[in-house]
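WARN no homologs supplied; continuing
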Amino acid sequence: MYNSKSKPSVLPTGGGAALIDPSDALILLLDHQSGLFQTVKDISVSDLRRNVEVISKLATLLNIPVITTASEPAGTNGPLMPEIHELAPHAVYVPRKGEVNAWDNDDFVAKVRATGRNTLIMAGVWTSVCVMFPALDARAAGYDVYAVLDASGDPSEMASRISLARFVQGGVKPTSTNALLSELHRTWARPEAAELGKLYGLVAPNYAAVAESYARAQQAAKEAI
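OK structure emitted
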């Protein structure tokens, strides 16, 4: 469906041939709902929410479209975390009619197809259900699919390990928020570099400490002149 050799992001060196092409990427944030957050046990909810926030900010910085959805926001699963649409105001919300699998919803699939993008980056709660089912169906439909595991959550570590195995078996590529950030970032020689740098400080707080130490050392050097 999508020929990697035609990627505009591939450099003469061949760099980028195996990486995500931002111009072909679509981010799908699935069922990040307050009720479901309370069941997550394989990652701290604070880390999970922060990683989703990073992805939302990244999408805004790089003009990557975002689609969100929730199966039953009026029920026990609860509403979507508001930070997604606050940080990615261009995100499009698609309500479902109770379908557990977002790919069972005609409106959702139509919105995905309407973007014309074929590289789907998915995250959600639960990983083993809300991400797994549409990810496998999207692969079957010919899409290139990535699952951001630390922007997703499951009721147990065993569930997340099983999910990882099934992703790999089904051709879905597992990744992390930090790897996604770096893969889409690609180079510091870009106008958004400073803002992208701030995202690294969120996804890896120790990196923020490195940046702070460097900035202070630079200031001390200037003061010593």
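Residues 205-224 form the longest helix (20 residues).
OK
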